[in-house]
Amino acid sequence: MIIVNTPGSWDHVFAPLLHASWHGITPTDCVFPFFIFIVGISITLSYRKMMAGGQSKSKLIGKTIKRAILIFLIGIFLGLFPDFNFAEIRLPGVLQRIAVVFLVCALLFLYTTWKQQAVIGSMVLLLYWGALLFVPVPGVGSGVLEPGRNLAAWIDELFIPGRMWQGTWDPEGILSTFPAIATGISGMLVGKLLANDGISRERQVLWLYLIGLLAFLFGSAWGWVFPINKNLWTSSYVLYTSGLAALVFASLFFVIEILGASAWAKFGVVFGANAITAYVIGGVLPELLGPLNTWYIDHVVVGNWANVASLLWAVGICLLCYVPVYWLYRKKIFIKI
């Protein structure tokens, strides 16, 4: 996410790091749903452990609400930094969506079974599909999925105060957050599989591959009639990316947990230990390096290799973010929100 958000120049972005302009998907469009997928897995594993340790639901609810509010506020802070122009405040955002999904999924874990969660996730995807295709938008009609002219955009303009990312609508808007919750639920269901001590790790991997492949194929097929679209977070996009996430996770799980080849993954472990901290540093650092970035654009991001130079800047920012989180990891300091 840091590399995607911090190119050397937005006029020369390395092609795989671009989002799809509208319908369709690129590798970059998988980053956000993969993150939410992992949030879902983490909820199942961590809350299960805390409840087994004797923590009450009321105490867990208090922690959950506090954490969701803090993540939401950090997202607002990053959106305001460095000018803090509250007249241009943007309420939706990446961390804000993560906060809402985390809150809802955590509550679902505490008060529903995994079967109920599966039903809720499925119903959300079906209802969202029906709403976007069959609920008429005033002045536009039904079934229109064009930018700014769909039901999600109409609801954003109606209910979201302040600035929105695309003027009259926001990719992290209100209606599209519901299928994002379904992405979180998909991760929770995978977490349930991982927490089942009655299934060997090898069989868990096989189930992950099977479930991931089916979700990926079904999402691809659904995309024929309900296009895969990150901005709308369409139902086909949820299944497509959750399927891919499960396949990638299964592969990593097999290599690291079963084969024991874990040394190469240390880089990711360090980032994961203080993930939100790394993301915040990645949001603040480019602003602090503004003058250096201007020089870099003028003198390095030029010619036929401009896109590569832009990528190298993003990688450099990511490596700079690694320095403080590695120090925290070595000191066994884990900043929990």
Automatic annotation (TrEMBL):
Superkingdom classification of source: Bacteria
Natural source organism: Parapedobacter pyrenivorans
Transmembrane segments: 31-47, 68-87, 93-111, 118-137, 173-194, 206-225, 237-256, 263-285, 305-329
Name by which UniProt lists this protein: DUF5009 domain-containing protein
Record key words, sorted: Membrane, Transmembrane, Transmembrane helix
Lineage of the organism: Bacteria, Pseudomonadati, Bacteroidota, Sphingobacteriia, Sphingobacteriales
